[in-house]
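Chain A, query sequence.
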Amino acid sequence: MTIDIMMPFYGDPGLFRDAVESVRAQEDGDWRLVVIDDVYPDRGPGEWVSSLGDARIHYVRNEVNLGVSGNFSKSVALVEAAHFVLMGCDDLMEAGYIGSMRDAIANHPDGSYFQPAVTVIGDDGRPSLPLADRVKSWYRPKKTETAVLSGQELAVSLLRGNWTYFPSICWNTEAVRRHGFDAAFDVVLDLALQLDIVLDGGSLVLLPEHTFRYRRHAGSVSSWTAQDGTRFDEERAFFLDAKARLRARGWQHAARVAGAHWSSRLNAATKLPGAIVKRDGAGLRALSRHILRGW
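Chain A, predicted structure.
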């Protein structure tokens, strides 16, 4: 059972090489890697990956830049296997990742997506645990063995604070294609997809083994949009819509959590000092609106 690894590329060439090499170092070799180059100006990284001579590795260069959601959607369209990973081009797989996922899928064939435990690393590759990831660790369900989560319980858990790491997840292809990525989102598109799957009766299989290294750095989309308040405008739109959908489903607890979503508002509060120091009036107004505005 082959697992497809889709790797949208637009970023640091050195970190990209490390990401590709971590796939090549997998102990279980039943994988297919597809690199989707979103028109990165330097053709060197694409030439390098094409020169590797590994029949399991494929390189595609977009004709035009598709952006985050567009490249993710193209990645899903190119998947051939029943399960796939949408891996970041600066993240790293531990050597046992593919083998662990193949075992989990065999044991839980009805799972919609599979979340392993993740080690967070910084730009230098060393383990790091900034505030955002400490908060994620608080929200992640405390399970020492594999657990299957679904229904309103899972929706409440995710909406309190999205503790998943999107690039580390192994997805059931059919479940993702049924819903796709919402082009209106860049920052919360993964949470939006998860909520769609949960409302459709899908389940998350939570795995205890640390088999993935997620790179946290200030250059990410979620980081730079946090500074000017853009991400919080997007989050507010998402949570208001989620609140309405959950109420319609009769999941009143989940609807209340989406409506309040304290973790998002507290995150905005942590950005206020930076906006004040920079004298960023627009960012300050956006952050204050998100923190104080009624839901």
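The longest strand covers residues 203-215. Strands lie at 3-9, 31-37, 57-61, 83-86, 92-93, 113-121, 147-150, 170-172, 203-215.
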